[in-house]
Amino acid sequence: MDRELAETGHLQALLSQLGAALDNYLNFTHPDALQSGVDWKRQLDRPLPERGEGIEAVNRALIDTLVAHASAIPNPGFSGYITTGGVTASTLALTAASVSSPQRYMLTAFNFVEELSLEWLSQMLGIGHLKGVYSSGGSVANLVALGGARQQAFEGIGIDPASEGMTGRGGQRPACLYASDQCHHTIQRAAGVLGLGRRSVRIIPSDGSGRMRVEALERALAEDRAEGRLPVAIVANAGTTNTGAIDPLRAMGELARAQGVWFHVDGAYGLPGILDPRKSVLYDGLELADSVIVDPHKWLGASVGVAATFVRDRDILMRAFTQEPADYLEGSMQRDEPERFDHSLDSFGIPYFDFGVELSAPCRGVVVWSMIREIGVEGFRQRIVRHNDMALELAEIARAHPQLELLLEPTLSICCFRFVDERIDDLNAFNQMLLRQLVRENRFMPTSTRVGEALAIRPCYIGARHAPEQVAGLVDEVVRLGNLLLQAGDSG
Amino acid sequence: MDRELAETGHLQALLSQLGAALDNYLNFTHPDALQSGVDWKRQLDRPLPERGEGIEAVNRALIDTLVAHASAIPNPGFSGYITTGGVTASTLALTAASVSSPQRYMLTAFNFVEELSLEWLSQMLGIGHLKGVYSSGGSVANLVALGGARQQAFEGIGIDPASEGMTGRGGQRPACLYASDQCHHTIQRAAGVLGLGRRSVRIIPSDGSGRMRVEALERALAEDRAEGRLPVAIVANAGTTNTGAIDPLRAMGELARAQGVWFHVDGAYGLPGILDPRKSVLYDGLELADSVIVDPHKWLGASVGVAATFVRDRDILMRAFTQEPADYLEGSMQRDEPERFDHSLDSFGIPYFDFGVELSAPCRGVVVWSMIREIGVEGFRQRIVRHNDMALELAEIARAHPQLELLLEPTLSICCFRFVDERIDDLNAFNQMLLRQLVRENRFMPTSTRVGEALAIRPCYIGARHAPEQVAGLVDEVVRLGNLLLQAGDSG
């Protein structure tokens, strides 16, 4: 049984070794993975091994080669995109579940916290009127929500799109979704996957703050109705990925309700912003939402792979996503719940696998549960206020500094600014160059976006490791590099 | 920074404590979670906490409450459905990635093994002509493959379904998918999600061994063609969930090719069976597949959340799943690859996020890489042969035993049998009762299925912990319980 032992045991010793390496990794004293790429590529690039090396060798390779040359994303200086490294509570929860509860279903303690954590999350984020289901990320979470919207819209014209499809008698009716020009592209993809088509997403212009122009939405709706198109959903951003803008939720939600159209709020990044008492007013109207998504793996600090869709009524998700009635799971003859539960295998519990696109799925609720138990609502509020403060502080510095320009007042924890100097001809090219140089140095790693025509340096503070000192550090480096580039005479 | 430290550090000490608890859990001396359910429910069922308890308390709760009352699935006696507990290599890989590489993209060692592991997997499983992408499970993996099929079929009639949708000019043309009555219901769900409709899946009858009747497939195709329907895909099982049957892949693949229809092979469970030299002939024709899926979290022993879709040409997945051209990722202005790579953030590498439904996604390749490095192809072959042997041994015992009936010769590692006795009136009700009693005892936990009209007790051996002694143990218990129930006079 030596091989079996190696395949299935020794967790304390192996996790302890790995934990030491991870603690060391979290000091971030190592160079960027690519800067040491020749070595690790040589070590990894092997043909398919016929014989195994055993678990000790694998753990050593994980520690010495993989972890040692891993991602820059968890680094406190990384403020690009909207992704971060998971917190310790998340890692512990994932590790525990991966061994002792490989599935979210059955009547176990892990299954219990799947629902409990969804309830906690909805209460904490001001959407207590909705019920949730986890999935692996914002893309799937939006897909699930819009699957519910598709179901409602087509049922409204007498068609069950999930069962009958849309290529039969419903097919003559082109569908429309409405989202602003700031919406995440995953909205288009979801429309594509659902058979509505990416082009069915009507792009509504936003104002100078990145908020949807509701009067344009109203016009588009009227136009499409007049031409016989079927409105499926109005999609609002509660925190755009580009600038953190929050759409006018109440106006959009009231319009949606008046028109009988599903109102979806994409809060993948920004929904936790509601915890900041200074910002909660921006979320006014959230109670009108038919569906809301949030990614605990963004601002709440879960390791990547944890998103949630919330809807008024999970029955509509059931109709949209059920795997045919009756034969719920392969080989299961116990379709009817037994008269009483004597064993954890007696029931699957809440049929999460019928509310989305996954059957087998890891336990994600335990991750959210562990994070909320660790720091409580108050801990999240403090973290979110701190991140919003960081964006505000950066905005103030940029406003005051002669060589910096604030491009947009921050809504949440994103701040868009750039380096300026009268000697620069092409500010976009210059800031692009500056940003590349900055990232090369591996200490401060924001990404960019556009604000109007301007290329912006765009830090987004969402990580548990994002602390106030990163603001001054980033500013100092941007100013230093900008002036170095100016001196080098290469002003784009 | 005490709170920050608690949120982000201490991994060695915490993982060591948790590892000890997990090693203890893997002794399986604890009662079933539900049998001790009153206590843990009381401990867990709390209102949303305003204040946090800190990471040490969370780890204790994970250990004392969650892990201690976790799932019966990883137990070596659990042989129900097609799910199992992950092996140690998988847990180590997940834990490492969750901290040091929260995303699969960027130019890091983790990103490198994402592709390397897909190549290894395809070579090991006889589908080296295909390229892969990971997702979270078989349902999504099938959805991705059938998204490719939808794309090819509609492009063939001049429509881009992902971009234009199918509710416009393509909408008049009902689509068809073909799968046997033994196919997994996730095929229907995928058709529903994709807007083809669950009802578009034409169910083709199978023979007494659970293999699709190809002549019936041929008739259905001809009929649909005559009536103007658009064939989208022929779906074959390489190991059905009910009995492990493998469809006649060559005959189906040749028919698909002759008809110009996408040929998809669902090998979620059974594809690794090709490693057993006695079984590889059953996979003849696999090279005709346009797409194949396999779930490393089934027979290969990964923790749940790791599936792979393989296709001839990832470009078709790109067209089916891209998030609109150009703006690949939020805030990214570096659409053009820089002239050279100086930093791991310079490129996303292979755009896996355009080949499926996820953008953010955890590293799954490292899990597969770690398992293959640990035991090699030879180790997997031994494990799979052992599991197939277990099903064969059970079949032999059942054939020889006067109180057991073998209901179907095993194809792979599933064996369908039942308890029989001339005194029993209703064999189905009796075996159902027997199975419930068996599972209550928490030592042997198969599930059931139907073979024809007969309710079968159906163990499925796929776990690294499934060892030969489980066969005799299960038989002894089934016979003992059967006779006990007979004595109790309750013969159904």
Automatic annotation (TrEMBL), chains A, B:
It comes from the Bacteria. InterPro entries: Aromatic_deC, PyrdxlP-dep_de-COase, PyrdxlP-dep_Trfase, PyrdxlP-dep_Trfase_major. Keywords: Decarboxylase, Lyase, Pyridoxal phosphate. The keyword Lyase applies. Its cofactor is pyridoxal 5'-phosphate. Signal peptide: none annotated. The keyword Transcription does not apply. GO terms for molecular function: carboxy-lyase activity; pyridoxal phosphate binding. Belongs to the group II decarboxylase family. This is Pyridoxal-dependent decarboxylase. The modification N6-(pyridoxal phosphate)lysine is found at K298. SUPFAM superfamilies: PLP-dependent transferases. Pfam families: Pyridoxal_deC. GO terms for biological process: carboxylic acid metabolic process.
